[in-house]
Design goal:
The complex is a heterotrimer of chains A (353), B (297) and C (306).
Chain A (H helix, E strand, L loop, with lengths): L3 E10 L2 E11 L4 E5 L6 H9 L6 E6 L2 E2 L10 E5 L10 H11 L4 H14 L15 H13 L5 E5 L7 H18 L2 E6 L2 H7 L2 E6 L2 E6 L1 H6 L4 H6 L6 E7 L5 E3 L2 E3 L11 E6 L12 E12 L3 E8 L3 E8 L9 E6 L5 E4 L7
Parallel strand pairs in A: 3-8, 3-9, 6-7, 7-8
Antiparallel strand pairs in A: 1-2, 1-4, 4-5, 9-10, 11-12, 11-14, 12-13, 14-19, 15-16, 15-18, 16-17
Helix pairs in contact in A: 2-3, 2-4
Chain B lengths: L1 H7 L2 H32 L17 H8 L1 H33 L5 H13 L2 H11 L6 H9 L15 H26 L3 H9 L4 H28 L4 H6 L11 H11 L3 H29 L1
Helix pairs in contact in B: 2-13, 3-13, 4-8, 4-10, 4-12, 5-8, 6-8, 8-10, 10-13, 12-13
Chain C lengths: L5 H33 L3 H4 L14 H7 L8 H6 L15 H32 L5 H13 L3 H13 L6 H25 L3 H10 L3 H12 L1 H17 L2 H6 L8 H10 L5 H21 L1 H14 L1
Classes of the chains: A alpha+beta (353), B mainly alpha (297), C mainly alpha (306).
Organism (chain A): Falsiroseomonas stagni DSM 19981
Pfam families (chain A): ABC_tran, OB_MalK, TOBE
Keywords (chain A): ATP-binding, Cell membrane, Membrane, Nucleotide-binding, Translocase, Transport
C-alpha cells in the first residue's frame, strides 16, 4: 500500500504560490524524482507529502486513503535530509532505534532491527558513537538506516547527497539504487542534480515555478523535452538553443544559417527555437544535414572532446565529438546532423513542436 | 462539515492551542485584565478610605494630573534622573565591554565579578549605598577626607543638589553589567577581518575604535539606550529605601508620586491615571526610539 | 611571539592591570564593604574613621539573625542591649528567617512554573505554524513592554478583591506575569537556532508536537533552560515593589520587604542590617556566578531578540 496521488495540490504562503494545483500519481514501488532549480516547489511538494507543510488546497492520497489532513507522525513515511538531521544528543544506535521506540516496538526486536540495518549499511562499528564523531558519508548512512529500519512503504529524500563530496556522492547514489531495488518501496526523491535524477529515477517530474513542466521517464525527458526549460535543464554541457524561424523551403533559418528539418515538421514562417544536443553531431554522411562551422575552442575531456564552434550567422554552439577526431583551434569543419534528432520549440510558448 | 472543521483546526492548531493556553490565560488574568481594569479605575474617583462611593469622573483624573504642579516637578526630576542614569550607564558599559572583550589572564574572573551587581537585590543595593553615603560612619566621607577632597564629613543624601546623582550612581552600579554584557555580545560579532584590514590600512587603536568598533556597536548601543531608559524611568525601590522622595522634594520622581498618591493618600483613581500616563510615555518614547532606529540602521 | 618587541606588550599589560583594578574596585568594592561591615560589631563599624577590614571576624550579627525568633523583643530587652548588635535589634528581626523561607518558596515556585509555561508556549510560537501565532506573539510582546508601574495599582485592587492579599500565591502569579514574557523570548530565540531538519526528522520518525519538544527541543536547549530558571528565581528573589504592595505581614512578606523595614527603622543596628543584606545577596550571587555562562548567553539572546 504505497501509491501516492496528488490532486490539485496547492501551497500558498500569503500571496506567494509555491506549488500550484499539482497533479501527480506515483505508483507503488516507483522511484520518482522531483527535479528543478531552487525555489521551484519540489521541496514544498515533498514536505506536503510528508505532512510537514500544511496543504493549502487539493487532496493527497496514499492508495485510497485521504491523508491530506493527517499529521506526519501518522503517515508512515520515512525521510532522509540533506543536513542528515541526526539527533546530536543520541548515539548512532539510539538514532536508528528511535523511530521503533516511538512505536513501542519490543526491545529485542529493536535490537535485532538495528543490528540488521547497521549490517546492511556497513555502520555496525559506529553504533556507539555520536553523530559529531562521524564523517558526512557515515552520517548519511546512519540517516538512511534510521529511515529503513521502520520498513516504511514510502521513502522521501530531500537532496540527500548534496552535502557530500563528488566521489562519495557516486557511491551513495548506487547504494540508494540498491536499496530501492531491495526494499520494493515507493521513493520520492528531490534533487537539483540532473545526473542523480537521470541515474536513479523511474520517472522524473521536472518542476519550475510550482508547476510540473514535464513528467516522463529519464529517456523521455532527455530525448523529448517538453519545452526549452526542460531541454536546457538536463544535459551537460547544456543543449544549444538557437532562435530563428522556418524558411519557405521548410528549413530552419537564422541569418546565413540553414538547417534541414524532418519534412513537414512545422509550417513555414513560424518563429521557433532550435535545440541541438552537443553530442548529436557526427561526421558528414549521406542523409545527414551538414553544418559548416569554425572551431574557436578545443577542450579535451579524455573520453571525448568538447568544441566551441561558430556557425554561419554568428551562431555559437558547443559540440561533443569523439576523442579520435583531430581538431585544432581555428579549423573550419563540416559536421553531419540527423534532422530527426533536432528539437524544435515555439519561440513564444517555449513548448515543443 | 467535519472535514471543514478539521481543516480549520488541524493537528497543529489543536496542539498549539493546548501548548499556548496556560500562558495566555496567566497573562490575560495578571497582565491584560489589570491593564484594562486600571483604565476603568482611572476614569473613576476611587478613594480607598471611602469605599462605597466611586463616581465616574471621565477624564477628570487626567486633567487634574496635568494641572498638578507636583506632577510637573516629578516629570523634571524623573527626566534629570533618567538622563544621568542612562548616559553614565552606557558610557561605563562601553568601557567595561572594551576591557572584558580583551583576552588576558583573569578576564574570566572579572566577567564573573561583573554579574555580582546584576544579581544584587535592589533593596540591598539601596541599603548598601545608603550605608556608604552615611553622614557619620559612611565609607564615602572617610575616603574623601583621607584623599583630601573634603575637609569635614558631609550628609551626602541630605544635600538636595546631590541626592538624585547619588541615587543614580547606585542605579548605574546595578544596571551597568547587563548593558556591558549586551555590548560584549555585539563586539564579539564584529569580524576579526575588519580589525586586520584597519591595521593593514594603518589605523591606530583609537582610530580602530572610532571607525570599526563604534559603527558595529550601534545596534547594541541603541538597544542598551532603549532598554535602560525604559528601566530607569520607572525606578522606585532605591527612592523608597534611600530618600523617600526627599530631602524636601529633591528626589520626588514620577514613580514615587504614584506610590504616594496611591498607597499613602489612597487616591486610587488619580494613581491609576498617573500610572497610565507614565506607561504611555514610556511606551511612546521607546516606540519613537525604535522607529527612529529602524530608519537609521 | 619571541620576536615581538617587548615594550608594547608591557604597556598593554600595565593598562589592562590598571583598568582591571579600577573595574574590581568599582564593581566589587561596595559589596566587599557591605560584607566587611556585616562581620564587625556595632561598636567597630561606628568607629571614626571606619575599619576597612573587620579587626576580628565576628559572626555575631548572623547569629543574632538566626536566633532572633527565640528572643522576645520588648522595650525592656532592647534597652538591656544585645552585645553583638549594640543593643539595636530591630523589632522585625524575628521576621527575617520566615521571610527568607517565603522568598525561597516563592522563588522556587516561580522558577518551576515559569519554565513549564514558557517552554510550551515558546515551542508553539517558535516551531508550529498555527493560526493565531502572530496574535499570541504580540500578546506576549505587549505584556512585556508594559511597565510594572502600570500594573501595581490594578493588580493590588484585583488581588485584594479576590481576597488574596498577603498570600504567597498572589506573589507567585504576579511574578509569573513579569518573568514569563521574557523567558518566552529567551526560549524562542534558542529554539529557532535548533536546525529545523531535526524537527522534521522527529515528526517523520513518529513524534507528535509533545514528542518533538521532549526528544529534540528540551535535550538540546539545556543552557537556555538553566538561564530561564535562574532568571526567574533571581527576579522573584529580588523583586520589591509588588511584594511591598501585595503583602502585609510575616505570612507572605519576602526578604527585601523585611530588610527595607530595617533600613527605614532609624533605631536599627547598622551591623545587623548589613548582615541581613549579605544574607539576601548570597543566594542570587552564588547562582549568577555558578551559571554565569548560561545566564550571559540566555539573557543577551532574549534581549537582542526582543
Amino acid at each position: 500500500m504505497a501509491a501516492i496521488t496528488c490532486e490539485k495540490l496547492t501551497k500558498r504562503y500569503g500571496s506567494v504560490t509555491a506549488v500550484d494545483r499539482l497533479d501527480l500519481a506515483i505508483g507503488h514501488g516507483e522511484f520518482m524524482v522531483l527535479l528543478g532549480p531552487s525555489g521551484c516547489g519540489k521541496t514544498t511538494t515533498l514536505n506536503m507529502i510528508a505532512g510537514l507543510e500544511e496543504i493549502t488546497d487539493g487532496t493527497l492520497r496514499f492508495d485510497a486513503t485521504d491523508v491530506t489532513w493527517q499529521p506526519p507522525h501518522k503517515r508512515e513515511v520515512a525521510m532522509v535530509f540533506q543536513s542528515y538531521a541526526l539527533y546530536p544528543n543520541k548515539t548512532v544506535r539510539e538514532n536508528i532505534a528511535f523511530p521503533l521506540q516511538l512505536r513501542r516496538t519490543p526491545r529485542a526486536e529493536v535490537e535485532r532491527a538495528v543490528a540488521d540495518v547497521s549490517e546492511q549499511l556497513e555502520i555496525a562499528h559506529l553504533l556507539d558513537r555520536h553523530p559529531s564523531q562521524l564523517s558526512g558519508g557515515q552520517r548519511q548512512r546512519v540517516a538512511l538506516g534510521r529511515a529503513i529500519v521502520r520498513k516504511p512503504s514510502v521513502f522521501l529524500m530531500d537532496e540527500p547527497l548534496s552535502n557530500l563530496d563528488a566521489a562519495l556522492r557516486l557511491s551513495m547514489r548506487s547504494l540508494i539504487k540498491h536499496l530501492h531495488q531491495r526494499l520494493q518501496a515507493t521513493f520520492v526523491y528531490v534533487t537539483h542534480d540532473q545526473a542523480e535524477a537521470m541515474t536513479l529515477a523511474d520517472r522524473i517530474a521536472v518542476m519550475r515555478g510550482g508547476l510540473i513542466q514535464q513528467l516522463d521517464t529519464p529517456d523521455g525527458i532527455y530525448s523529448r523535452p517538453a519545452n526549452t526549460f526542460v531541454a536546457s535543464f538536463l544535459g551537460s554541457p547544456p543543449i544549444n538553443l538557437v532562435e530563428g524561424e522556418i524558411a519557405a523551403d521548410g528549413r530552419f533559418a537564422r541569418g546565413a544559417l540553414r538547417l534541414d528539418l524532418p519534412p513537414g515538421a512545422v509550417a513555414p514562417g513560424r518563429a521557433v527555437t532550435l535545440g541541438l544536443r552537443p553530442e548529436d553531431v557526427a561526421a558528414p554522411a549521406p542523409g545527414l544535414a551538414s553544418l559548416e562551422a569554425r572551431v574557436t575552442l578545443v577542450s579535451p575531456l579524455g573520453s571525448e572532446t568538447l568544441l566551441e564552434v561558430v556557425a554561419p550567422g554568428d551562431v555559437a554552439l558547443t559540440l561533443r565529438v569523439p576523442k579520435e577526431w583531430r581538431v585544432r583551434h581555428g579549423d573550419s569543419m563540416t559536421f553531419g546532423i540527423d534532422p530527426a534528432r533536432l528539437h524544435l520549440f515555439d519561440r513564444q510558448t517555449e513548448a515543443r513542436l | 462539515m467535519l472535514a471543514r472543521l478539521n481543516r480549520k483546526f488541524g493537528y497543529d492548531e489543536r496542539s498549539a492551542a493546548i501548548l499556548v493556553f496556560p500562558v495566555v490565560a496567566v497573562l490575560l488574568v495578571v497582565a491584560a485584565y489589570p491593564i484594562l481594569y486600571s483604565f476603568w479605575v482611572s476614569l473613576h474617583d476611587i478613594v480607598l478610605t471611602r469605599p462605597l462611593r466611586r463616581p465616574f469622573v471621565g477624564g477628570d483624573n487626567y486633567l487634574r494630573i496635568f494641572g498638578d504642579e507636583r506632577f510637573w516637578l516629578a516629570v523634571s526630576r524623573t527626566t534629570v534622573y533618567t538622563v544621568v542614569t542612562v548616559v553614565v550607564t552606557t558610557v561605563l558599559a562601553v568601557l567595561v565591554a572594551l576591557l572584558l572583550n580583551e583576552t588576558f589572564p583573569g578576564q574570566r574572573i572579572l566577567s564573573a565579578v561583573l554579574l555580582v551587581p546584576w544579581a544584587t537585590p535592589s533593596v540591598v543595593n539601596g541599603l548598601m549605598w545608603k550605608w556608604i553615603y552615611d553622614p557619620t560612619y559612611g565609607l564615602l566621607n572617610a575616603l574623601l577626607l583621607k584623599v583630601g577632597l573634603i575637609e569635614r564629613y558631609r550628609a551626602w543624601l541630605g544635600d538636595p543638589d546631590l541626592t538624585l546623582m547619588l541615587i543614580a550612581n547606585a542605579a548605574v552600579w546595578k544596571q551597568m553589567p547587563l548593558a556591558a554584557l549586551l555590548l560584549i555580545v555585539t563586539m564579539k560579532a564584529i569580524p576579526d577581518d575588519l580589525y586586520r584590514a584597519a591595521k593593514v590600512d594603518g589605523a591606530n587603536v583609537l582610530q580602530r575604535f572610532v571607525h570599526v568598533t563604534l559603527p558595529a556597536l550601534r545596534p547594541g548601543l541603541m538597544l542598551v539606550l532603549v532598554y535602560e531608559t525604559m528601566i530607569s524611568i520607572r525606578h522606585f525601590d532605591l527612592f523608597l529605601i534611600m530618600t523617600q522622595g526627599g530631602p524636601g522634594d529633591a528626589s520626588f520622581t514620577l514613580s514615587w508620586l504614584i506610590y504616594v498618591e496611591t498607597f499613602r493618600s489612597l487616591r486610587f483613581g488619580t494613581g491609576a491615571a498617573m500610572s497610565y500616563v507614565l506607561a504611555m510615555a514610556t511606551f511612546l518614547l521607546s516606540w519613537a526610539v525604535i522607529r527612529w532606529l529602524g530608519k537609521r540602521i | 611571539m619571541a620576536g615581538r618587541p617587548l615594550a608594547p606588550r608591557i604597556g598593554r599589560a600595565v593598562l589592562l592591570a590598571f583598568f582591571s583594578a579600577l573595574f574590581v574596585l568599582y564593581v566589587a568594592g561596595p559589596v566587599a564593604w557591605l560584607v566587611s561591615s556585616s562581620l564587625q560589631t556595632e561598636a567597630q563599624i561606628t568607629a571614626i574613621p571606619p575599619n576597612w577590614l573587620p579587626p576580628e571576624v565576628n559572626f555575631g550579627n548572623f547569629d543574632a539573625i538566626l536566633n532572633a525568633a527565640e528572643r522576645q523583643v520588648t522595650y525592656e530587652t532592647r534597652r538591656q542591649g544585645d552585645p553583638a548588635t549594640g543593643g539595636f535589634l530591630p523589632s522585625g528581626a524575628a521576621n527575617l528567617i520566615p521571610s527568607l523561607w517565603n522568598s525561597l518558596t516563592v522563588g522556587l515556585w516561580v522558577a518551576a512554573l515559569n519554565l513549564l509555561l514558557s517552554v510550551t508556549a515558546a515551542y508553539a510560537i517558535a516551531v508550529i505554524d498555527f493560526r493565531g501565532r502572530r496574535a499570541t506573539l504580540y500578546t506576549v510582546l505587549a505584556t512585556r513592554v508594559v511597565p510594572d508601574i502600570a500594573l501595581i495599582v490594578p493588580l493590588f485592587l484585583v488581588i485584594r478583591n479576590l481576597g488574596l492579599i498577603n498570600t504567597l500565591g498572589a506573589l507567585v502569579v504576579t511574578y509569573l506575569a513579569i518573568t514569563v514574557p521574557f523567558t518566552i523570548f529567551i526560549l524562542i530565540s534558542y529554539f529557532e537556532g535548533i536546525p529545523r531538519d531535526l524537527y522534521r526528522a522527529a515528526r517523520i520518525d513518529g513524534c507528535g508536537h509533545w514528542g518533538a519538544l521532549r526528544h529534540v527541543y528540551l535535550p538540546l536547549s539545556l543552557p537556555a533552560l538553566v538561564a530561564s530558571l535562574t532568571f526567574a528565581f533571581l527576579t522573584s528573589w529580588n523583586e520589591f515593589v509588588f511584594a511591598l504592595v501585595l503583602t502585609q505581614n510575616v505570612a507572605a512578606q519576602t526578604l527585601p520587604i523585611v530588610i527595607s523595614g530595617f533600613v527605614m527603622d532609624f533605631t536599627t543596628s547598622f551591623s545587623f542590617v548589613n548582615a541581613a543584606g549579605v544574607i539576601a545577596i548570597i543566594p542570587p550571587v552564588l547562582m549568577a556566578v555558578l551559571f554565569q555562562r548560561y545566564i550571559v548567553s540566555g539573557l543577551t539572546a532574549g534581549a537582542v531578540k526582543g
